[in-house]
Design a protein that fits this description.
Helix 3 (80-93) crosses helix 4 (107-115), helix 6 (182-205) crosses helix 10 (244-266) and helix 10 (244-266) runs antiparallel to helix 11. The chain contains 13 helices and twelve strands. It has helices at 27-38, 50-58, 80-93, 107-115, 160-172, 182-205, 212-215, 220-226, 233-242, 244-266, 273-290, 314-324, 354-363, and strands at 19-23, 42-46, 63-64, 73-76, 98-101, 123-128, 149-153, 176-179, 302-309, 331-336, 342-349, 367-373. The termini are far apart.
Protein backbone atom coordinates (compact mmCIF):
# COMPACT_ATOMS: atom_id res chain seq x y z
CA UNK A 1 0.00 0.00 0.00
CA UNK A 2 1.40 3.40 -0.95
CA UNK A 3 2.11 6.19 1.50
CA UNK A 4 -0.63 8.22 -0.15
CA UNK A 5 -3.19 5.49 0.42
CA UNK A 6 -2.10 4.87 3.98
CA UNK A 7 -3.38 8.15 5.37
CA UNK A 8 -6.53 9.31 7.03
CA UNK A 9 -8.68 12.22 5.93
CA UNK A 10 -6.26 14.72 7.46
CA UNK A 11 -3.39 13.38 5.36
CA UNK A 12 -1.44 12.15 8.41
CA UNK A 13 0.23 8.78 7.80
CA UNK A 14 0.02 6.11 10.52
CA UNK A 15 3.06 5.32 12.63
CA UNK A 16 2.37 1.59 12.38
CA UNK A 17 3.17 -0.37 9.24
CA UNK A 18 2.42 -3.91 8.23
CA UNK A 19 -0.47 -5.93 9.61
CA UNK A 20 -1.94 -5.61 13.09
CA UNK A 21 -3.67 -8.71 14.44
CA UNK A 22 -6.38 -8.17 17.07
CA UNK A 23 -7.45 -11.17 19.14
CA UNK A 24 -10.84 -10.49 20.67
CA UNK A 25 -13.35 -8.45 18.67
CA UNK A 26 -15.31 -6.97 21.56
CA UNK A 27 -15.58 -3.30 22.53
CA UNK A 28 -11.86 -2.54 22.93
CA UNK A 29 -10.57 -4.84 20.20
CA UNK A 30 -13.09 -3.67 17.62
CA UNK A 31 -12.59 -0.02 18.61
CA UNK A 32 -8.84 -0.38 18.07
CA UNK A 33 -9.61 -1.97 14.72
CA UNK A 34 -11.88 0.91 13.67
CA UNK A 35 -9.31 3.52 14.73
CA UNK A 36 -6.44 1.81 12.89
CA UNK A 37 -8.51 1.15 9.78
CA UNK A 38 -9.39 4.84 9.67
CA UNK A 39 -5.63 5.43 9.40
CA UNK A 40 -5.25 2.93 6.57
CA UNK A 41 -3.63 0.18 8.67
CA UNK A 42 -4.25 -3.45 7.65
CA UNK A 43 -6.17 -5.04 10.55
CA UNK A 44 -7.02 -8.72 10.91
CA UNK A 45 -9.44 -9.96 13.56
CA UNK A 46 -9.71 -13.20 15.47
CA UNK A 47 -12.34 -14.20 18.04
CA UNK A 48 -13.54 -17.48 19.55
CA UNK A 49 -17.10 -16.33 18.89
CA UNK A 50 -17.88 -16.56 15.15
CA UNK A 51 -20.89 -14.24 15.49
CA UNK A 52 -18.89 -11.60 17.35
CA UNK A 53 -16.15 -11.83 14.73
CA UNK A 54 -18.57 -11.50 11.82
CA UNK A 55 -20.29 -8.56 13.46
CA UNK A 56 -16.99 -6.72 13.98
CA UNK A 57 -16.01 -7.38 10.37
CA UNK A 58 -19.42 -6.25 9.09
CA UNK A 59 -19.05 -3.00 11.00
CA UNK A 60 -15.63 -2.43 9.41
CA UNK A 61 -13.23 -3.09 12.29
CA UNK A 62 -10.97 -5.29 10.13
CA UNK A 63 -10.91 -8.46 8.05
CA UNK A 64 -11.03 -12.07 9.18
CA UNK A 65 -7.60 -13.46 10.04
CA UNK A 66 -6.33 -16.08 7.61
CA UNK A 67 -3.46 -18.52 7.37
CA UNK A 68 -0.48 -16.71 5.93
CA UNK A 69 -1.05 -13.43 7.76
CA UNK A 70 2.24 -12.16 9.16
CA UNK A 71 1.46 -9.48 11.74
CA UNK A 72 4.09 -7.11 13.10
CA UNK A 73 1.97 -6.36 16.17
CA UNK A 74 -0.63 -8.45 17.99
CA UNK A 75 -3.17 -6.89 20.34
CA UNK A 76 -4.80 -9.32 22.79
CA UNK A 77 -8.20 -8.03 23.89
CA UNK A 78 -9.85 -10.89 25.74
CA UNK A 79 -11.30 -11.34 29.27
CA UNK A 80 -8.75 -11.20 32.11
CA UNK A 81 -9.10 -14.87 33.06
CA UNK A 82 -7.78 -16.02 29.66
CA UNK A 83 -5.41 -13.14 28.88
CA UNK A 84 -2.23 -15.00 29.84
CA UNK A 85 -3.30 -18.10 27.90
CA UNK A 86 -3.92 -16.13 24.71
CA UNK A 87 -0.69 -14.12 25.05
CA UNK A 88 1.27 -17.37 25.38
CA UNK A 89 -0.45 -18.85 22.33
CA UNK A 90 0.14 -15.75 20.21
CA UNK A 91 3.81 -15.53 21.16
CA UNK A 92 4.21 -19.16 20.08
CA UNK A 93 2.21 -18.85 16.84
CA UNK A 94 3.85 -15.64 15.62
CA UNK A 95 7.54 -15.70 16.61
CA UNK A 96 8.35 -12.47 14.75
CA UNK A 97 5.53 -10.33 16.19
CA UNK A 98 5.40 -8.08 19.22
CA UNK A 99 2.47 -8.92 21.49
CA UNK A 100 0.62 -6.51 23.75
CA UNK A 101 -2.66 -6.83 25.62
CA UNK A 102 -5.24 -4.31 26.80
CA UNK A 103 -6.42 -6.01 29.99
CA UNK A 104 -7.18 -3.68 32.88
CA UNK A 105 -4.88 -5.66 35.21
CA UNK A 106 -1.20 -5.93 34.30
CA UNK A 107 0.66 -7.75 37.08
CA UNK A 108 -1.35 -10.99 37.13
CA UNK A 109 -0.84 -11.94 33.44
CA UNK A 110 2.86 -11.04 33.65
CA UNK A 111 3.34 -13.21 36.72
CA UNK A 112 1.42 -16.09 35.17
CA UNK A 113 3.54 -16.04 32.01
CA UNK A 114 6.78 -15.95 33.97
CA UNK A 115 5.60 -18.79 36.23
CA UNK A 116 5.08 -20.92 33.11
CA UNK A 117 8.56 -20.13 31.85
CA UNK A 118 7.29 -18.21 28.82
CA UNK A 119 9.84 -15.95 27.13
CA UNK A 120 8.22 -12.52 27.55
CA UNK A 121 10.86 -10.56 25.65
CA UNK A 122 8.36 -9.78 22.85
CA UNK A 123 5.45 -9.17 25.23
CA UNK A 124 4.67 -5.66 26.49
CA UNK A 125 1.57 -5.22 28.60
CA UNK A 126 -0.52 -2.12 28.02
CA UNK A 127 -3.89 -0.69 29.01
CA UNK A 128 -5.98 2.06 27.44
CA UNK A 129 -7.96 3.95 30.08
CA UNK A 130 -11.11 4.04 27.99
CA UNK A 131 -14.35 2.15 27.74
CA UNK A 132 -18.12 2.24 27.77
CA UNK A 133 -20.80 0.73 29.97
CA UNK A 134 -21.97 -1.39 27.02
CA UNK A 135 -19.63 -3.91 25.45
CA UNK A 136 -19.37 -5.86 22.22
CA UNK A 137 -18.47 -5.03 18.65
CA UNK A 138 -21.74 -3.19 18.13
CA UNK A 139 -20.69 -0.57 20.73
CA UNK A 140 -17.19 -0.07 19.29
CA UNK A 141 -16.12 3.42 18.20
CA UNK A 142 -13.07 4.70 16.36
CA UNK A 143 -12.83 7.72 18.66
CA UNK A 144 -12.95 5.75 21.92
CA UNK A 145 -9.28 6.38 22.79
CA UNK A 146 -8.84 9.98 21.67
CA UNK A 147 -7.15 11.98 24.41
CA UNK A 148 -7.19 9.04 26.84
CA UNK A 149 -4.12 7.71 28.71
CA UNK A 150 -2.67 4.45 27.42
CA UNK A 151 -0.35 2.83 29.97
CA UNK A 152 2.62 0.85 28.59
CA UNK A 153 4.39 -1.50 31.02
CA UNK A 154 7.96 -2.11 29.94
CA UNK A 155 10.52 -4.16 31.87
CA UNK A 156 14.28 -4.75 31.75
CA UNK A 157 13.92 -7.11 28.77
CA UNK A 158 11.91 -4.72 26.61
CA UNK A 159 13.65 -3.78 23.38
CA UNK A 160 13.39 -0.12 22.34
CA UNK A 161 12.00 -0.98 18.89
CA UNK A 162 9.26 -3.14 20.44
CA UNK A 163 8.37 -0.41 22.92
CA UNK A 164 8.14 2.09 20.07
CA UNK A 165 5.72 -0.23 18.26
CA UNK A 166 3.28 -0.36 21.19
CA UNK A 167 3.55 3.38 21.72
CA UNK A 168 2.86 3.88 18.00
CA UNK A 169 -0.32 1.87 18.45
CA UNK A 170 -1.46 4.20 21.23
CA UNK A 171 -0.61 7.30 19.22
CA UNK A 172 -2.29 6.04 16.05
CA UNK A 173 -5.60 5.58 17.85
CA UNK A 174 -5.33 9.05 19.40
CA UNK A 175 -4.30 8.05 22.93
CA UNK A 176 -1.52 9.43 25.13
CA UNK A 177 1.06 6.72 26.00
CA UNK A 178 2.72 6.79 29.40
CA UNK A 179 5.03 4.29 31.05
CA UNK A 180 4.39 2.53 34.37
CA UNK A 181 5.49 -0.69 36.00
CA UNK A 182 2.78 -3.35 36.33
CA UNK A 183 2.71 -2.71 40.08
CA UNK A 184 2.27 1.04 39.62
CA UNK A 185 -0.48 0.48 37.07
CA UNK A 186 -2.49 -1.94 39.19
CA UNK A 187 -2.37 0.20 42.33
CA UNK A 188 -3.32 3.26 40.29
CA UNK A 189 -6.35 1.71 38.58
CA UNK A 190 -7.46 0.22 41.90
CA UNK A 191 -7.88 3.79 43.16
CA UNK A 192 -9.20 5.48 40.04
CA UNK A 193 -11.25 2.71 38.40
CA UNK A 194 -11.79 -0.48 40.36
CA UNK A 195 -12.83 0.93 43.74
CA UNK A 196 -15.08 3.58 42.11
CA UNK A 197 -16.84 0.70 40.31
CA UNK A 198 -17.50 -1.07 43.61
CA UNK A 199 -18.68 2.12 45.32
CA UNK A 200 -20.98 3.05 42.42
CA UNK A 201 -22.44 -0.46 42.35
CA UNK A 202 -23.04 -0.50 46.10
CA UNK A 203 -24.81 2.86 45.98
CA UNK A 204 -26.90 1.97 42.92
CA UNK A 205 -27.77 -1.34 44.54
CA UNK A 206 -29.73 0.61 47.15
CA UNK A 207 -32.08 1.78 44.38
CA UNK A 208 -33.15 -1.76 43.54
CA UNK A 209 -35.52 -1.90 46.53
CA UNK A 210 -36.08 1.84 47.05
CA UNK A 211 -39.52 3.41 47.03
CA UNK A 212 -40.60 4.63 43.60
CA UNK A 213 -41.39 8.04 45.02
CA UNK A 214 -37.82 8.45 46.26
CA UNK A 215 -36.38 7.55 42.87
CA UNK A 216 -38.47 10.26 41.20
CA UNK A 217 -36.37 12.78 43.12
CA UNK A 218 -33.11 11.55 41.56
CA UNK A 219 -31.16 14.32 39.87
CA UNK A 220 -28.01 14.53 37.81
CA UNK A 221 -25.76 14.17 40.84
CA UNK A 222 -26.91 10.65 41.62
CA UNK A 223 -26.77 9.73 37.93
CA UNK A 224 -23.17 10.99 37.75
CA UNK A 225 -22.10 8.98 40.78
CA UNK A 226 -23.76 5.73 39.64
CA UNK A 227 -23.27 5.82 35.85
CA UNK A 228 -20.63 3.07 35.84
CA UNK A 229 -22.87 0.80 37.91
CA UNK A 230 -24.36 -0.36 34.60
CA UNK A 231 -21.15 -2.31 33.85
CA UNK A 232 -21.09 -6.06 33.16
CA UNK A 233 -20.86 -8.16 36.38
CA UNK A 234 -19.11 -11.07 34.64
CA UNK A 235 -16.20 -8.87 33.55
CA UNK A 236 -15.84 -7.11 36.88
CA UNK A 237 -15.71 -10.36 38.83
CA UNK A 238 -12.58 -11.16 36.84
CA UNK A 239 -11.03 -7.69 37.08
CA UNK A 240 -11.54 -7.34 40.82
CA UNK A 241 -10.36 -10.88 41.48
CA UNK A 242 -7.15 -10.29 39.50
CA UNK A 243 -6.41 -7.02 41.32
CA UNK A 244 -7.80 -7.94 44.73
CA UNK A 245 -4.97 -6.84 47.04
CA UNK A 246 -4.75 -3.12 46.14
CA UNK A 247 -8.55 -2.94 45.89
CA UNK A 248 -8.98 -4.44 49.37
CA UNK A 249 -6.47 -2.01 50.86
CA UNK A 250 -8.40 0.99 49.54
CA UNK A 251 -11.80 -0.46 50.45
CA UNK A 252 -10.62 -1.10 54.02
CA UNK A 253 -9.42 2.51 54.32
CA UNK A 254 -12.67 3.75 52.82
CA UNK A 255 -14.66 1.64 55.29
CA UNK A 256 -12.76 3.31 58.14
CA UNK A 257 -13.63 6.73 56.71
CA UNK A 258 -17.31 5.81 56.38
CA UNK A 259 -17.38 4.53 59.95
CA UNK A 260 -15.91 7.81 61.20
CA UNK A 261 -18.57 9.84 59.40
CA UNK A 262 -21.43 7.58 60.50
CA UNK A 263 -20.22 7.76 64.12
CA UNK A 264 -20.16 11.56 63.89
CA UNK A 265 -23.68 11.65 62.49
CA UNK A 266 -25.03 9.41 65.24
CA UNK A 267 -24.41 12.32 67.60
CA UNK A 268 -24.13 15.41 65.38
CA UNK A 269 -24.37 17.80 68.33
CA UNK A 270 -21.38 16.29 70.13
CA UNK A 271 -18.09 18.27 70.16
CA UNK A 272 -16.03 17.56 67.06
CA UNK A 273 -18.81 15.85 65.10
CA UNK A 274 -19.45 18.76 62.78
CA UNK A 275 -15.74 19.09 62.14
CA UNK A 276 -15.52 15.44 61.03
CA UNK A 277 -18.30 16.01 58.51
CA UNK A 278 -16.86 19.31 57.30
CA UNK A 279 -13.36 17.85 56.90
CA UNK A 280 -14.77 14.92 54.95
CA UNK A 281 -16.47 17.26 52.48
CA UNK A 282 -13.43 19.55 52.30
CA UNK A 283 -11.07 16.66 51.61
CA UNK A 284 -13.39 15.64 48.80
CA UNK A 285 -13.09 19.16 47.40
CA UNK A 286 -9.31 18.87 47.52
CA UNK A 287 -9.39 15.50 45.74
CA UNK A 288 -11.63 16.77 42.95
CA UNK A 289 -9.33 19.76 42.49
CA UNK A 290 -6.45 17.38 41.74
CA UNK A 291 -8.23 15.51 38.98
CA UNK A 292 -6.90 16.49 35.56
CA UNK A 293 -9.40 18.28 33.37
CA UNK A 294 -9.63 18.91 29.65
CA UNK A 295 -6.47 17.85 27.77
CA UNK A 296 -5.07 16.57 31.09
CA UNK A 297 -4.73 20.08 32.47
CA UNK A 298 -5.45 21.06 36.08
CA UNK A 299 -7.17 24.17 34.81
CA UNK A 300 -10.12 25.85 36.50
CA UNK A 301 -13.23 26.78 34.58
CA UNK A 302 -16.36 28.73 35.40
CA UNK A 303 -19.84 27.28 34.95
CA UNK A 304 -23.02 28.87 33.69
CA UNK A 305 -26.33 27.02 33.74
CA UNK A 306 -28.65 27.70 30.81
CA UNK A 307 -32.30 26.66 30.62
CA UNK A 308 -32.89 24.88 27.29
CA UNK A 309 -36.39 24.15 26.01
CA UNK A 310 -36.96 20.46 25.31
CA UNK A 311 -37.54 20.94 21.59
CA UNK A 312 -35.55 19.91 18.55
CA UNK A 313 -32.55 22.07 17.64
CA UNK A 314 -32.32 24.10 20.83
CA UNK A 315 -29.03 22.67 22.04
CA UNK A 316 -27.49 23.14 18.59
CA UNK A 317 -28.69 26.75 18.57
CA UNK A 318 -27.12 27.31 21.99
CA UNK A 319 -23.74 26.00 20.80
CA UNK A 320 -23.98 28.02 17.62
CA UNK A 321 -24.62 31.27 19.47
CA UNK A 322 -21.83 30.58 21.95
CA UNK A 323 -19.57 30.16 18.91
CA UNK A 324 -20.75 33.50 17.53
CA UNK A 325 -19.85 35.06 20.88
CA UNK A 326 -16.37 33.57 20.63
CA UNK A 327 -16.94 31.36 23.71
CA UNK A 328 -15.31 27.92 23.69
CA UNK A 329 -17.30 25.22 25.49
CA UNK A 330 -14.72 23.45 27.69
CA UNK A 331 -17.18 20.91 29.10
CA UNK A 332 -20.91 20.23 29.15
CA UNK A 333 -23.33 18.47 31.48
CA UNK A 334 -27.05 18.09 30.80
CA UNK A 335 -29.76 17.56 33.39
CA UNK A 336 -33.45 16.92 32.85
CA UNK A 337 -35.95 17.32 35.65
CA UNK A 338 -38.67 14.64 35.61
CA UNK A 339 -41.83 16.04 34.02
CA UNK A 340 -40.27 19.38 33.07
CA UNK A 341 -40.36 20.65 29.49
CA UNK A 342 -36.85 22.01 29.65
CA UNK A 343 -33.35 20.89 30.54
CA UNK A 344 -30.43 22.53 32.28
CA UNK A 345 -27.17 22.79 30.36
CA UNK A 346 -24.22 23.34 32.70
CA UNK A 347 -21.48 24.76 30.48
CA UNK A 348 -17.85 25.14 31.54
CA UNK A 349 -16.00 28.12 30.05
CA UNK A 350 -12.72 29.93 30.66
CA UNK A 351 -13.05 32.43 33.53
CA UNK A 352 -12.39 35.38 31.22
CA UNK A 353 -15.28 34.31 28.99
CA UNK A 354 -17.95 33.93 31.68
CA UNK A 355 -19.35 37.49 31.82
CA UNK A 356 -19.43 37.86 28.04
CA UNK A 357 -21.16 34.49 27.69
CA UNK A 358 -23.86 35.41 30.21
CA UNK A 359 -24.53 38.85 28.78
CA UNK A 360 -24.44 37.66 25.18
CA UNK A 361 -26.82 34.75 25.79
CA UNK A 362 -29.24 36.91 27.74
CA UNK A 363 -29.33 39.41 24.88
CA UNK A 364 -30.30 36.54 22.60
CA UNK A 365 -33.17 35.50 24.84
CA UNK A 366 -31.61 32.63 26.76
CA UNK A 367 -32.52 32.14 30.42
CA UNK A 368 -29.54 31.83 32.73
CA UNK A 369 -30.36 29.67 35.76
CA UNK A 370 -27.10 30.37 37.54
CA UNK A 371 -23.34 30.71 37.36
CA UNK A 372 -20.85 28.97 39.62
CA UNK A 373 -17.14 28.47 40.15
CA UNK A 374 -15.86 24.95 39.69
Amino acid sequence: MSDTARTNGSGIAPRLSGTVRIVGAGLLGASIGHALRAKGVDVVLSDTSPSQLRLAVDYGAGRVAQDGDSPTLIVVSVPPDVTADVIEAELSSFPDAVVTDVASVKLEPFRALNARGVDTTRYIGSHPLAGRERGGAISARADLFIGRPWVVCRDAQTRPADLALVEALALDVGAMPLEMTPEEHDSSVALTSHVPQVVASLLAGRFATADEGALRLAGQGVRDTTRIAASAPELWVQILGANAQPVVEILDALADDLREVSDALRAPAEPGARRVVAETIRQGNDGVDRLPGKHGQNRKFEQLVVMVDDTAGQLGRLFGELGELGVNVEDLRLEHSPGAQFGLAEISVAPAALRGAIEGLQERGWRIAGATNE
